[in-house]
Structure formats: structure tokens, C-alpha cells
Amino acid sequence: MSDQYVLEISAPKLLMLELMGDFKRQKFQFANISSLVRVNLKFSGRVCSDEYDHEKRRTQLIELLERLQHVNQLELWDWCIQVLSYGELKGLPSLVSSCKILTLNSHVLKWDIPGIVSLLQGSPCLEKLVVNMSSDYHHAQKFLDSCNFDGEDPWTSSKRILSPLLHLKTIVIVGLKGLSRRISASACAVFAAECSGSGEDGHQNRKVRAF
């Protein structure tokens, strides 16, 4: 008997939704959530065993995000980002979202970067990116270990041609000063590369704040 339970949400006037907990045990069904504006997904997967099926978890997460792809503001935490990294490393297409404000609670370490790239590439309407590097950080070690394909380190070998984020106007990085110089430099390099490009008028007109 499955220990997964189903949470059904029908809320035509709901504006904000926050979901958290053990993702493996949860399945969601939505009905009439067109008014939803802001979503915060703070899942964990640290209780999973050695048989943890990362591909199945990614499929579940993508199905959830597909139902929420119309929201204006999306906030994700480290575990979700790392699961999306798996799909990026496998060359799977990014989920397309219409969100304009994306908040990522991540320290932007090597196992987060592919997932961040996937999210950015799937957000063509993005206007503001917030990266919270001061949040508590967790990583699913068993999941990360299982991503070593053919004995090759995927965290340094993955490459992808990126499209410019034409609507992006503002990047806010929180907690940068509290991290080591090496991690801070790495994070800055990531967002300088992934968010490069010009605005719709062909000029660089973005604001970047780091603190």
C-alpha cells in the first residue's frame, strides 16, 4: 500500500500558496486556481532511501510546476533546484513558465547551477530574479551521488547554449557578503554568464544589487 497521500486544492480566489514537507509522500491535484499569483515550494527529500528514484521525483515536480506555470511569482528552495538539475544534466527540456519574479533560495553550488540554468531558460518573461544565499542550505547526497553518469563528473562537464533573458531588469542577491570569497566569486560568475544579454531595446539596462 502506498504511503503517498493526495492533497486536493480547489480555491478560485486563492492568491498565495506555500507547500512544504517531504515531497515523496505528497501528490497534488488542483482545480480552479486561475487567481493564484504567488507560489512558494519548500520541499525536502532527505528521508529517501538508497532506492530513491530521482527521475520519478523530477517527473512529479515538473507535473506540479506545469499546473502552476501561470503564476506571476515563483519561489523555490534548494531541494527542488537540485532535482531540476538532474533533468538539465540529462539534456531534458526546460519547463516553460510565465513567471515575472523568480526567487531562488540557494547557495549556488555546483549541484544547484544546472537547475538554476533550466529555470532561467524556461522563464522568458522574467523581469526580476532574487537569489537568497543566506537561507538554510540542504542537499540530498544520495541523489547527488546517483547523478554521476558513466563515471563522468556531470557537475563540471555539462554545457548548454543559452538564450538571453530579454525582459530581465533586476537581479537581487541576498547574503553574498556572508559567504566565503570563493563561493561569492563563483555565484557572481554564474549570474553574469546566465543573465547576460541586452534588453528589448538592445541596451544593457539591468540593475544588480548584492548584499
Tell me what the structure shows.
- By secondary structure, the chain is an alpha/beta fold.
- The chain is built from 6 helices and 9 strands.
- The protein has helices at 54-67, 78-89, 113-121, 141-145, 154-157, 181-194, and strands at residues 5-10, 16-22, 26-31, 38-44, 73-77, 101-105, 128-132, 170-174, 207-210.
- The strands form 2 sheets. The protein has a 7-stranded parallel β-sheet. Strands 1-3 form a two-stranded parallel sheet.
- Helix 2 packs across helix 3 (113-121).
- The longest helix has 14 residues, at 54-67.
- The radius of gyration is 17 Å and the shape is globular.
- Mean pLDDT is 77; it is low at 47-51 and 198-203.
Structural class estimated from helices and strands: alpha/beta
Quaternary structure: single chain
Question: Which residues form runs of ≥5 with pLDDT under 50?
Answer: 47-51, 198-203
Helix fraction bin: 25-40%
| Anisotropy-based shape | globular
Structure summary:
The protein has 211 residues and is an alpha/beta fold. The protein has helices at residues 54-67, 78-89, 113-121, 141-145, 154-157, 181-194; strands at 5-10, 16-22, 26-31, 38-44, 73-77, 101-105, 128-132, 170-174, 207-210.
Q: How are the SSEs ordered, and which strands pair?
A:
Blueprint: E1 5-10, E2 16-22, E3 26-31, E4 38-44, H1 54-67, E5 73-77, H2 78-89, E6 101-105, H3 113-121, E7 128-132, H4 141-145, H5 154-157, E8 170-174, H6 181-194, E9 207-210
Parallel strand pairs: 1-3, 2-4, 4-5, 5-6, 6-7, 7-8, 8-9
